[in-house]
Amino acid sequence: MEDSSNTLKLTQDGGYKWRLVLAYDGTHYAGWQYQVSPPTIQCIVEKALTRVTKLERKDLCLVGASRTDRGVHAWGQVAHFITPFNYDKLEEIHAALNGLLPSDIRVREISPASPEFHARFSAISKIYHYKIYNDTIMDPFERHFAYHSVYKLNSTVMREAAKYFIGKHDFSAFANVPNNDRVRDPVKHIFRFDVIEMGALLRLEVEGSGFLYRQVRNMVALLLQIGKEAVPPDIVPKILATRDRKELAKYTLAAPPQGLCLVSINYNESHLLLPPGRPANSFGRHHTVSKCKLPFY
């Protein structure tokens, strides 16, 4: 982006941090985490940022709050990046980013962030939804965003089973081995797990302090087996107690990715306060049509 009197202000001190709220259709991407081929969401967003800011990838330090997997969608992914300069207003960079990004990735919001804010480590909870289309024939408009179950699911026993996940547990039995060497604390706190019926759609909503690799899809997979009445609801605490992923594998594989969506990430309000001397948040802008002045006859 070109330097202008009301766009950039160079500073001599450390960088300025910015927060992005992103939505994307993950169908054609290999997840969030950076890699060039096949493309990932982070890779595409960084390319757009480098063009708009004229900075190198290593200088942007883009970090996402959640490493969504291949084929998983997001409505409320959060990321932050750093620039050595301040912006006077954000509407122009916001419009420029969405102009460069493909139509299946959108920046919903861009805002200044405090130096203490970290997209991943400042999060206090994350909310995921998993959609199941429960009818004999799949709605073609839902095929990329919901799992199709031709088995009639018993939502009552699914709700009963979902309650067993609520609370603080060791979720080792519901975590796949990650593709990297990171060792994560297997103890997570699930605040709620709701099963909501919307006609043929079942929406499973889960909020937790954090999630292990494929934990949500594994929990959903077991609930599907319970909904089919293949296993009883009280199988959940029994599998949790084993802390062994092989135990879950006796009953089910992970649910497919297309039904899963990262809906929102919650932070302490103090981390979202507007830092002094920074521009207002940008939520995009509407275009307007100038009124045509017709001659008076």
TrEMBL record:
<dbReference type="GO" id="GO:0031119">
    <property type="term" value="P:tRNA pseudouridine synthesis"/>
</dbReference>
<feature type="domain" description="Pseudouridine synthase I TruA alpha/beta">
    <location>
        <begin position="161"/>
        <end position="268"/>
    </location>
</feature>
<dbReference type="InterPro" id="IPR020094">
    <property type="entry name" value="TruA/RsuA/RluB/E/F_N"/>
</dbReference>
<feature type="active site" description="Nucleophile">
    <location>
        <position position="69"/>
    </location>
</feature>
<keyword id="KW-0413">Isomerase</keyword>
<feature type="binding site">
    <location>
        <position position="128"/>
    </location>
    <ligand>
        <name>substrate</name>
    </ligand>
</feature>
<comment type="similarity">
    <text>Belongs to the tRNA pseudouridine synthase TruA family.</text>
</comment>
<keyword id="KW-0819">tRNA processing</keyword>
<dbReference type="Pfam" id="PF01416">
    <property type="entry name" value="PseudoU_synth_1"/>
</dbReference>
<protein>
    <recommendedName>
        <fullName>tRNA pseudouridine synthase</fullName>
        <ecNumber>5.4.99.12</ecNumber>
    </recommendedName>
</protein>
<dbReference type="GO" id="GO:0003723">
    <property type="term" value="F:RNA binding"/>
</dbReference>
<dbReference type="InterPro" id="IPR020103">
    <property type="entry name" value="PsdUridine_synth_cat_dom_sf"/>
</dbReference>
<dbReference type="InterPro" id="IPR020097">
    <property type="entry name" value="PsdUridine_synth_TruA_a/b_dom"/>
</dbReference>
<dbReference type="GO" id="GO:0160147">
    <property type="term" value="F:tRNA pseudouridine(38-40) synthase activity"/>
</dbReference>
<dbReference type="InterPro" id="IPR020095">
    <property type="entry name" value="PsdUridine_synth_TruA_C"/>
</dbReference>
<dbReference type="InterPro" id="IPR001406">
    <property type="entry name" value="PsdUridine_synth_TruA"/>
</dbReference>
<feature type="domain" description="Pseudouridine synthase I TruA alpha/beta">
    <location>
        <begin position="23"/>
        <end position="121"/>
    </location>
</feature>
